[in-house]
Design goal:
This protein is an alpha/beta fold. The chain has helices at residues 14-18, 37-44, 102-108, 145-165, 175-189, 201-212, 240-255, 258-261, 267-281, 298-305, 311-327, 336-345, 351-364, 371-381, 389-392, 432-440, 464-476, and strands at 48-55, 65-73, 81-86, 112-118, 194-199, 217-223, 286-288, 291-293, 414-423, 441-449, 484-485. It has a domain at 5-127 and 170-233 and 426-485: Rossmann fold. Helix content is 39%, strand content 14%.
């Protein structure tokens, strides 16, 4: 593995000593044109937008630059400081983060300048795009060697397209460089310290920032925590069991509403309905709204839909499964939201997002290159994880990635302060990650939301106890004396 020696010392913020102090940001309206819905929404909320030039390669601070796009809504009351918000992903845009989660953002906006920032390679921040024909990752490996071979070919094609379309840019897309970018934003904002709110992958970005730039944060909330020791191409490898458990819980909920959805009157009957779909797509595709749905896509649809235990998301998931079951007997037209989801997944619409996500994950940690490794893993866990092993353990484009990670993964081990917020049955980032992250950040505390089956809590789940405790920390700056629960 090639290392950029000037940056390889884990925990040392060497990049900032070499980079000239950032110039002030020139703020302007956010809408780029009359068709820019995101910009218009930010403008209507009173936001300003701006750009910041940062080094493409922090080992060459005077070399080529890229542009970061950020937004700001100024504090309306007694100002504490600047709060940078990252929505996760990786590859997720965060320019509009200051106007999302209205239940808490309005209150936070009284005390903080709210900062939205599209990470490098994402959204408006010098985006990369591999020109993908559809959202090919994650894609399930299927039930046979033939279906798995198809998945392998899809992932190899993603890597090839990225090499052709993005090329040498790929080596600079990684979390460590994004953390360095974030510190340049801090400097440009004129802040000695910034506060930070990061969801999902944003919790990992926050942990890396704490490691690289100790002493430069005030208050830090890491929601939906990622284990920094395992973040990388196989991040979802251990997520099968909790998703199977969440699937069973959803099936129980759905069975109690059999008169509405007709999927079965018991948990076992509802799961049998799903298994009918799985058996069908082994040999024939489903036709829904003009789209062909096969083995590679069905597990993804379950994965993205059955991941939230609130009433409305569970009902939406029941309608999705109901549609899949109906499609066994012939073509069906989906409800509008499912049709839009399929249009999104099975078109180039998500190409930029998936491109950035893939580049970040592959740029942070190397993956096994032998496709047989993933197939054996699926097979070994298929009996215990029948619905999810084919997707959580399948191969990714990183197995074929043209660029090796330029630095070793960040070893997070520090005594910074942070509040870690974790749902007990989080279907994306395992609850055990909270303990691992707490150990890595020794002065952190964990706030557990018991019995919650949702990824992302603060301002999203509707748990008043958790929202109040996070707010209390952000306003007072005082962490709980011990871990807490809601």
């Amino acid at each position: 593995m090639k290392l950029l020696l000037a940056l390889a010392l884990l925990g040392a913020p060497t990049s900032t000593t070499a980079v000239a102090e950032a110039t002030p940001i020139e703020w302007h309206q956010c809408a780029l044109n009359e068709n820019d819905a995101e910009g218009k929404a930010l403008d209507e909320a009173g936001a300003q937008c701006g750009e910041l030039k940062v080094p493409l390669d922090y080992s060459r601070p005077n070399g080529p630059k890229i542009t970061l796009a950020l937004s700001r809504i100024k504090a309306t009351g007694d100002r504490i400081g600047a709060l940078v918000i990252n929505n996760g992903g990786p590859g997720g845009p965060s320019l509009s983060a200051p106007i999302e989660r209205p239940d808490v953002i309005e209150t936070l906006g009284k005390r903080y300048d709210l900062i939205g920032l599209d990470p490098r390679s994402v959204g408006r921040s010098t985006p990369i795009d591999c020109k993908l024909p559809f959202a090919a990752w994650p894609w399930a490996g299927g039930s046979t060697r033939a279906s798995y071979a198809k998945s392998v070919a899809i992932q190899a094609d993603v890597a090839h397209r990225c090499e052709q379309q993005v090329g040498s840019m790929l080596q600079y897309v990684n979390t460590r460089n994004t953390a360095r970018d974030m510190d340049q934003v801090r400097v440009a904002l004129g802040e000695q310290k910034i506060s930070y709110l990061g969801y999902s992958y944003g919790s990992y970005l926050g942990a890396v920032y704490l490691q690289l730039f100790p002493g430069r944060t005030d208050r830090v909330v890491l929601d939906g925590p990622v284990n920094p020791q395992t973040f990388g191409p196989r991040l979802l490898q251990q997520a099968g069991p909790v998703n199977e458990d969440n699937l069973r819980a959803w099936a129980t909920w759905t069975a109690a509403r059999n008169s509405t959805y007709g999927l079965g009157a018991t948990q076992r009957e509802v799961l049998a309905s799903i298994d009918r779909v799985y058996r069908h797509v082994r040999t024939a595709e489903l036709e829904i709204g003009g789209h062909k749905i096969g083995e590679g896509l069905v597990p993804m649809l379950l994965f993205v839909s059955i991941n939230d235990d609130r009433e409305t998301p569970r009902a939406d998931a029941a309608v999705l499964v109901q549609t899949l079951v109906k499609a066994i007997d012939g073509p069906v037209e989906p409800r509008a939201d499912l049709g839009e989801l399929l249009d999104l997944i099975l078109s180039p619409a998500m190409s930029q997002t998936i491109s950035a996500q893939t580049a970040i994950v592959c740029g942070d940690r190397a993956a096994p290159r032998d496709p047989a490794v993933y197939w054996r893993d699926i097979q070994a866990h298929r009996a215990r994880e029948p619905h999810y092993a084919p997707i959580t353990r399948s191969i990714s484009p990183c197995a074929f990635w043209p660029v090796q990670p330029q630095e070793a993964p960040t070893r997070v081990a520090n005594s910074e302060h942070a509040l870690i917020v974790a749902a007990e049955h989080d279907p994306r980032t395992l609850y055990g990650n909270a303990a691992a992250l707490r150990k890595s950040i020794s002065n952190s505390r964990v706030l557990t939301v018991q019995n919650a089956r949702k990824h992302g809590v603060f301002g999203e789940y509707g748990n008043a106890c958790a929202d109040q405790k996070v707010m209390s920390y952000l306003f007072s700056g005082k962490l709980p004396v011990a871990d807490e629960t809601c």
